Amino acid sequence: MVATVDHFINGQIKKGKSGRVGDVFNPATGEVARKVALASADEVSAAIESARAALPKWAETPPLQRARVMFKFKELIEKHMDELAAIVTDEHGKVLSDARGSVQRGLEVVEFACGIPHLLRGDYTENVGRGVDSYSVRQPVGVCAGITPFNFPVMVPLWMFPIAAACGNTFILKPSEKDPSASMRLAELFKEAGAPDGVLNVVNGDKEAVDTLLTDPGVNAISFVGSTGVGEYIYRTGCGNGKRVQALCGAKNHMVVMPDADLDKAVDGLMGAGYGSAGERCMAISVAVAVGDSADALVERLAPKVRELKVAPGTDPEAEMGPLITRDHLNKVRGYVDLGVDEGADLVVDGRDLKLQGYEDGFFIGGCLFDNVRPEMRIYQEEIFGPVLGVVRVPDFASAMELVNNHQYGNGASIFTNNGDAARTFATKCNIGMVGINVPIPVPMAFHSFGGWKSSAFGDHGIYGMEGVHFYTKLKTMTSRWPTTISEGAQFTMPVMR
Predict the structure, then answer these.
(1) Which of 121, 274, 335, 444 could disulfide-pair with 448, CB 3.0 to 4.6 Å?
(2) Which of 167, 249, 282, 430 is catalytic?
(3) Alpha-carbon span 202 to 186, nearest angstrom
(4) Which residues in the chain are classed under CATH 3.40.309.10?
């Protein structure tokens, strides 16, 4: 018998009633570690009603008091940092140091939310006309929902609900059913921090839960992080039901390595960005664009490092890379490596047959490195979401820029160079949402905003930072006059301020 992860509704753990459950694995052993309840439409509706009931009082709570909840929540996350990281490693598989780093990056958004009284300040203009003043405020959107991916079960929820709640909204979180325990623990800590019941609810589930959130008129806004196919469905369905939607989606992030780059730093950057978290990051580098004569030296230095990657359970303090999330995903990644061989790319390092003694049933794969990848290949065009790095050779900077700009995804891209002109041109002209210059994974800090371009995102707003504040609030502008003179009579022309 294994335990079941249920739901968190109106401040309480609620046992699943649908009769449907999913498996949650220990990726290192391949064993079912626990079950997760899959919510019915009625259970999701109960969470929505809880959020709606809590909304008026929470929206009227002064921002300073909401900020105090965020300060306490920040303190609790810091106190439970190691516990949260251990939960992530247990269900996702990533190494503990990486899990701890992801919790830290989520915590930074909570720290940003602590400044919400300042962030929600409005604007005021006196005398836009004679005796007429104008001012604007930002008010809560209402009930918001977040649909989050398996790869960051703490960080991505923390990108969403702290900003939403600090702005005066209530929230329903639907985490990935593959690793749901972290979200439940966050909800408990948020309540302990002083959030009233109903401000944050967690419903575990699958497409039935998602579709209920997308169609229920009680939900006003949807945030999503995940694959492009699902993200486009969520965007179209949510918008079609009158909701504000932001959907951050797939990626195929390129790193351009110029001939003048510090090759050792470029190789180190590619190793961490390509194989960290077993490549299960939307900001992972999966394409190295070797410009000119940098290619041979780049591959020559990469290959032994990829072969020597320390692959082990995430709890091993020496591990550099852990297992993939599920056997299905492992088979998918292996299938892409098979495909790359069939397409004619050179498989320089083959990690498909990696087996660890004592963990033979775990979802492990070694690092894989392809050379001579061509743009028409599917392993170049599609997101693999595993520890597979492909090297594309191009003759010059212009060809590299064209490659980056022509790809369907536009999440992140980096350039390694010592040439300031090349770096500036790349940053200015690449059709990409987040750009790194001698930085392999250009994830913005919490006081900026995260967001891709092209097929990597749907919607007008990035996530967290001021983009998050604007997504989770509506602008209202007032124009006021307090007349003391006799009325001049009705005005039938467009009002003009004098």
Answers:
(1) 444
(2) 282
(3) 10
(4) 253-437
- Does the pTM of the predicted model rise above 0.85? yes
Q: Which two tokens stand for residue 223?
A: 């945030």
Give the contacts of 291 (CB within 8 A, at least 6 positions apart).
Answer: 256, 257, 258, 259, 394, 395, 396, 397, 399, 400
Q: Which CATH architecture has domain 4-249+456-478?
A: 3-Layer(aba) Sandwich (3.40)
Segment 249-263, tens digit of pLDDT = 999 999 999 999 999
Amino acid, res. 102: S
Q: What is the pLDDT of residue 40?
A: 98
Regarding beta strands 170-174 and 143-147, do their DSSP bridges make them parallel or antiparallel, or are they unpaired? Answer: parallel
Residue 291 β-bridge partners? 394
Return mean pLDDT, the chain: 96
Residue ranges of E strands in 130-190: 132-140, 143-147, 170-174
Question: How many angstroms separate the CA atoms of 227 and 376, rounded?
Answer: 21
Q: Extract the tokens encoding 47.
A: 């969470």
C-alpha–C-alpha distance, residues 158 and 164, integer Å = 10
Token pair listed for 494: 């467009």
Low-confidence ranges of the chain (pLDDT < 50): none
253-437 CATH fold? Aldehyde Dehydrogenase; Chain A, domain 2 (3.40.309)
Angle at 165 between CA 162 and CA 166, to 5 degrees: 80
User: CATH 3.40.605.10 residue ranges in the chain?
Assistant: 4-249+456-478
Residue 490: its pLDDT value, please? 78
Please report the pLDDT score of residue 276 as a whole number: 97
Query: Could you give the C-alpha distances from 131 to 42, 186, 337, 497, in angstroms and in order?
Result: 53, 50, 71, 10
Whether 282 is a known active-site residue: answer yes
In the block, which residue shows the tokens 């909701």?
A: 243
The predicted pLDDT at position 498 comes to: 64
Predicted confidence at residue 486, as pLDDT, reads: 65
